[in-house]
């Protein structure tokens, strides 16, 4: 921080002290002002931001100790330095207890004052930098990618907010692609552990030996190929969150080891003998039916209950269809920006295709379809022709019970399938093109 | 034509002043004029502290400035203080007319060391230019070699040069133009 960026307020009832300090700090280039008593100082604190306040302890009216308390109420990060003509241990202790940065006896050695102010400026700089960094982290963490306004997702987010405040283990259940990792990150980013890392490990992606090494780390020479000591994910997650994805896929031995670590919060690296203490919160996720696995004897019941202190079930996308346009638009905005394309929205027909589709791959599938559509899109809208579903559209239940609703849904489905090609749709539906046009008009199925 | 007035105040040894005046001319491009002002030092003496209040001396120094005085530099050999600090080497009005500097704490013998005339003379030169620099609107400079770098103890003064850095030279020139046009709007002091 440059001196002119630092504001110093001097509060003293002695004019000669105020003046001499004012001169001293101005010669250093600081922004300086003075106040001869507490009320005037408090007014100046309201008018302008101040970084450092030097205040006399003995003043008529409100004394320096009380003024300092009020200053800290206005801004607890202002650096306060107490000055006194008579050194007293009691007042010094009181001032420091109340948050004073330091305590000086008048007159002060010039070198001591210079060092004191340098240190105070450094403290203020660090505090300011810390606040800014925290804000930046909050900004990075806050933009939720959990998109949706359906009652189902709102309920999930309510539960996320509740469980985030605790340190309980959480089990997230849901079909593939429903955003289990996203929910784990949302819990972490709302928890008190948010300034520490969330470490993710996909348990299903490693063979047993490798998973063990990934989690626990290893010492040099622990096994063939262990050329260096390596920290495992458990150590990396210290003070943060460990997210174990696909927990249903781990071996029985791994289940036992994991249970022990979760209960004792200590472990040893492979090939090592030193116990390492760790402090992490566990969130796990699976799309497997663990109740069934327990009955079959492939998943430990004790580990299951240890992991499932709190469980969250993510609904598949087909059960919250009203969120599909929001999610599709969210990814559209994201990819338009990253691909630098001027695509603003979906055509009404394209959006209808999205809402009519079942999305067996859930949100991950929406993301992939939108990304692909963005690559091929030519105009400012994503058209039906730009969309390609990776899975054939499964038979969908009609959204209503009446014959008209069934008819409408079937026409929408076939039009989606033929990407809006009327001639092909007429052939599949075994009706004339004119009839299709009439039905489109009747059901207001706009392209 | 205006001058930088050099005012020795109860100073017995004037042997350094000639060199000092030459250096001031080289630095600020203004001629110097040596003069004796009536300064009552006992009025500025604080018996409790056994020191002289430099602000009170400065006030006396600038009470009736001569018409051709661009700046006035008082030079003395007493221990100076300002109320908040235990001592000062000198004091000046930032963007003002007056400055004062004392050789008292610039001498090695003050610190129990053998006196070294050359060192004292060089320290006086640096502190005089430093205080005059404040009157030209200069604040403390972060450049370690610049004479406007702050010094809070004697060895500090030895570490810097007697010259202004290029940035401070520019500000000085701009300050000279401003004061020629606007007079001295501010009245406050710098020291160190």
CATH class designation of chain B: Alpha Beta
Overall number of domains of chain B: 1
What's the story with the biggest beta sheet of chain B? 6 strands, mixed
What is the level-2 CATH architecture name of chain B?
A: 3-Layer(aba) Sandwich
Interface with most residues? A-B, 23 and 23 residues
Let me know the number of strands of chain B: 9
- The assembly state of the depicted protein chains is heterodimer
The average pLDDT of chain B is 90
- Overall mean pLDDT of chain A: 88
CATH class division of the largest domain in chain A: Alpha Beta
CATH domain fold name of chain B = Collagenase (Catalytic Domain)
Explain the overall architecture.
The complex is a heterodimer of chains A (447) and B (192). Chain A is of the alpha/beta class and 447 residues long. Chain A is built from 18 helices and 16 strands. Chain A folds into three domains: 3-138, Rossmann fold (3-Layer(aba) Sandwich); 151-315, Rossmann fold; 319-442, Helicase, Ruva Protein, domain 3 (Orthogonal Bundle). Chain A is 47% helix and 15% strand. A five-stranded parallel β-sheet of chain A has the order 2-1-3-4-5, with helices on both faces. In chain A, strand 4, helix 4 and strand 5 (102-105) form a beta-alpha-beta unit. The two termini of chain A are 60 Å apart. Chain B has 192 residues and is α/β, with parallel strands linked by helices. Chain B has helices at 17-28, 54-61, 117-135, 154-159, 166-182, and strands spanning 3-8, 32-34, 45-46, 51-53, 69-76, 80-81, 90-94, 98-102, 188-191. In chain B, helix 1 (17-28) runs parallel beside helix 3. The radius of gyration of chain B is 15 Å and the shape is globular. The A-B interface holds A 3, 14, 16-17, 19-24, 26-29, 83, 106-111, 113-114 and B 49, 55, 81-88, 91, 94, 134, 139-140, 150, 152-153, 188-192.
């Amino acid at each position: 921080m440059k001196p002119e960026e630092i504001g110093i307020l001097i509060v003293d009832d002695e004019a000669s002290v105020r003046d001499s300090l004012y001169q001293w700090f101005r010669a250093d280039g600081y922004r300086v002002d003075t106040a001869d008593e507490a009320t005037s100082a408090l007014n100046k604190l309201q008018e302008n931001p101040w970084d450092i306040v030097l205040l006399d302890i003995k003043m008529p009216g409100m004394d320096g100790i009380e003024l300092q308390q009020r200053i800290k109420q206005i801004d607890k990060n202002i650096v306060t330095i107490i000055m006194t003509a008579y050194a007293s241990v009691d007042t010094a202790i009181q001032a420091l207890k109340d948050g004073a940065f330091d305590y000086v006896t008048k007159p002060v050695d010039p070198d001591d004052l210079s060092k004191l102010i340098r240190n105070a400026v450094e403290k203020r700089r660090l505090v300011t930098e810390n606040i800014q960094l925290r804000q930046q982290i909050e900004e990075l963490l806050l933009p939720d990618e959990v998109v949706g306004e359906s009652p189902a997702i709102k309920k999930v987010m309510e539960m996320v907010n509740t469980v985030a405040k605790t340190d309980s283990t959480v089990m997230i259940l849901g079909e593939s692609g429903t955003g289990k990792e996203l929910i784990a990150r949302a819990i972490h980013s709302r928890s008190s552990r948010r300034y520490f890392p969330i470490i993710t490990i996909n348990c299903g992606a490693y063979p047993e030996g490798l998973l063990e090494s990934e989690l626990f780390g290893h010492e040099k020479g622990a096994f063939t190929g262990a050329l260096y000591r390596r920290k495992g994910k458990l150590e990396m997650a210290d003070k943060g969150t460990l997210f174990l994805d696909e927990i249903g896929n781990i071996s029985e031995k791994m289940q036992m080891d994991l249970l022990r670590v979760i209960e004792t919060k200590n472990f040893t690296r492979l090939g090592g003998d030193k116990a390492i203490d760790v402090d992490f919160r566990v969130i796990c996720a699976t799309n497997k039916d663990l109740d069934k696995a327990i009955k079959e004897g492939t998943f430990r019941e004790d580990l299951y209950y240890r992991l499932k202190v709190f469980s969250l079930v993510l609904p598949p996308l087909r059960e919250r269809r009203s969120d599909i346009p929001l999610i599709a638009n969210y990814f559209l905005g994201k990819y338009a920006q990253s691909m630098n394309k001027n695509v603003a929205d979906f055509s009404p027909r394209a959006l209808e295709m999205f809402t009519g589709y079942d999305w067996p791959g859930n949100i991950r599938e929406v993301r992939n379809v939108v990304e692909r559509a963005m690559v091929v899109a030519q105009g400012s809208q994503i058209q039906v022709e730009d969309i390609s579903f990776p899975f054939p559209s499964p038979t969908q239940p009609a959204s209503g019970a009446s014959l008209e609703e069934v008819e409408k849904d079937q026409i929408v489905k076939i039009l989606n399938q033929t990407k809006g090609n009327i001639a092909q749709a007429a052939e599949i539906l075994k009706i004339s093109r004119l009839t299709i046009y009439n039905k489109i008009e009747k059901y207001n199925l706009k392209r | 034509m205006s001058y930088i007035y050099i005012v020795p105040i109860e100073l017995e040894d004037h042997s350094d002043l000639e060199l000092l005046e030459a250096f001031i001319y080289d630095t600020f491009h203004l001629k110097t004029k040596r003069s004796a002002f009536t300064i009552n030092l006992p009025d500025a003496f604080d018996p409790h502290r056994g020191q002289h209040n430099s602000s009170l001396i400065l006030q006396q120094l600038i009470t009736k400035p001569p018409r051709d005085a661009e700046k006035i530099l008082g030079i003395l050999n007493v221990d100076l203080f300002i109320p908040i600090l235990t001592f000062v080497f000198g004091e000046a009005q930032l963007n003002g007319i007056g400055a004062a500097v004392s050789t008292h704490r610039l001498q090695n013998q003050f610190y129990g060391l053998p006196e070294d005339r050359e060192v004292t003379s060089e320290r006086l030169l640096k502190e005089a230019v430093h205080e005059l620099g404040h009157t030209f609107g200069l604040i403390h400079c972060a450049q370690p070699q610049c004479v406007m770098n702050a010094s809070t103890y004697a060895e500090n003064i030895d570490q810097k040069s007697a010259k202004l850095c290029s940035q401070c030279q520019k500000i000085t020139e701009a300050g000279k133009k401003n004061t020629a046009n606007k007079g001295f709007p501010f009245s406050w002091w710098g020291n160190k």
